[in-house]
Write a structure and sequence with these properties.
The protein is mostly helical. The protein has seven helices and no strands. It has one domain. Helix 1 crosses helix 2 and helix 2 crosses helix 6. The model has no long low-confidence stretch (mean pLDDT 78).
Length: 197
């Protein structure tokens, strides 16, 4: 996989990085912890510039976030309520939870979007509730773009500084991703067992 990603970055340049970061946001199993530092490594070799790969990565990531935001906005609050009314058990939610969650998101959604874009596994889906809650588009793009810029800068700069040892970033970040995903699964199972209609 490393060879394929490296080839795409080298052949595609900045456009390849935009495509990869877009796809990573749409399809979370793609390893941003591997290809973002790899893009930094390519920049360290002088084939691309570090500011250029960071800008391309941020743009692709923001485009992916916009996709999820638009999907959430298209679904909307009323359809979300209907979905929960029909499938609440498997979603471990009641319609009242949606109303509480929307009110909470109205108060704290900006911080959720900003920091959520920097958390593995969460960063891809955090845009959906922003869309459902109809967070203003400009605010969403600003906060999501800032969070994406920070995450992209950290990973790509690490790859740039580590050069050929860029995979060390993945060795550090991958366990964090596993912990986040494992925690989310555990919380879901706990909520499923305790769910009462």
């Amino acid at each position: 996989m490393i060879e394929a990603l490296s080839g795409l970055i080298e052949r595609g340049g900045y456009a390849g990085i935009i495509l990869l970061t877009f796809l990573e946001t749409i399809f979370p199993p793609l390893p941003s912890e591997v290809f973002m530092p790899l893009a930094g490594f390519v920049a360290a070799r002088g084939e691309l510039t570090l500011p250029g790969v960071i800008a391309a990565g941020t743009l692709g990531s923001l485009a992916g976030a916009w996709f999820w935001y638009a999907l959430g906005r298209a679904i909307g609050l009323e359809r979300t309520r209907q979905l929960v009314a029909r499938h609440g058990r498997w979603l471990t939610l009641h319609t009242a939870d949606i109303d509480r969650g929307t009110a909470w998101f109205d108060r704290h959604g900006g911080l959720v979007v900003l920091f959520g874009r920097m958390v593995p596994a969460i960063r891809s889906v955090v845009s959906v509730p922003a869309g459902i809650a109809h967070m203003p588009v400009g605010r969403f793009l600003l906060l999501s773009g800032l969070g994406s810029l920070i995450w992209t800068t950290l990973l790509m700069t690490a790859g740039f500084l580590l050069e050929a040892r860029y995979l060390e970033v993945a060795r550090w970040a991958s366990p964090a991703s596993t912990i986040v995903v494992g925690g989310l699964v555990a919380i879901y199972l706990w909520r499923l067992v305790r769910y009462r209609a």
